[in-house]
Amino acid sequence: MSVLATLVTAAQPVPVPAPPAPAATITQPPISYPAIMPILIILGAACVGVLFEAFLPRHNRIAAQLVLSVLAILVAGWRLLSYADEMPETGTITLGRALAVDKPTLVLWATLLVLTIGALILMADRTVERGGYFVADAAVRPGTVQDRAQAGRGEMQTEVFPLALFALGGMMVFCAANDLLTMFIALEVLSLPLYLMCGLARRRRLLSQEAAVKYFLLGAFASAFFLYGLALLYGYAGSVQLSDIANAAAGTNRSETLLFGGLGLLVVGLLFKGSVGPFHTWTPDVYQGAPTPVTAFMGACTKIAAFGGILRVLSVGFGTTSWEWRGVLWGVAIASMVIGAVLGLTQTDVKRMVAYSSVAHAGFLLIGAIVLKPAGLSATLFYLVTYGFTTLATFGVIGLVRNADGEATHLSQWAGLAKRSPLVAGTMAFLLLALAGIPLTSGFVGKFVVFQAALSDGMAPLVVVAVLASAVAAFFYLRVIVLMYFSQPAEDGPTVTIPNLWTTGVLTVCVLVTLFLGIAPSLVLDWTSSGVFALQ
Amino acid sequence: MTSSSSSAVLVALLLVPLVGAIVVAALRGNDRLAKLVALGISIVEFALAIVSWAAYDAGGARLQQAFSMDWIPSFGVHLSFGVDGIALVMIAVIALLVPLVIGSSWLEKLPEGRSAGGFLGLILVEQALTIGVFAATDVFVFYVLFEIMLIPMYFLIGSYGGANRQYAAVKFFLYSFLGGMIMLASVIALYVQAGNALGKGTFDWATLVTVVHHAPLSTQIWLFLGFFAAFAIKAPLVPLHTWLPDAAAEAPIGVAVLIVGVLDKVGTFGFLRYCLPMFPDASRKLAPLVLVLAAAGVLYGSLLATGQRDMKRFIAYVSIAHFGFIALGIFSFSSQAMTGSVSYMINHSISTGMLIIVIGMVIARGGSTRIADYGGMAKLTPLLAGLFLLAGLSSLSLPGTNSFISEFLVLIGSYPNAPVYTIIATVGMILAALYILWLYQRVFTGPVRGDALMQFDGPGATIAPETGARRAIRDLTGREIGVLVPLVVLVIGLGLYPKPVLDVVTPTVNATMTSVGVGDPVTVQEGH
Question: For chain B, what are the domain ranges?
Answer without folding.
Answer: 284-522
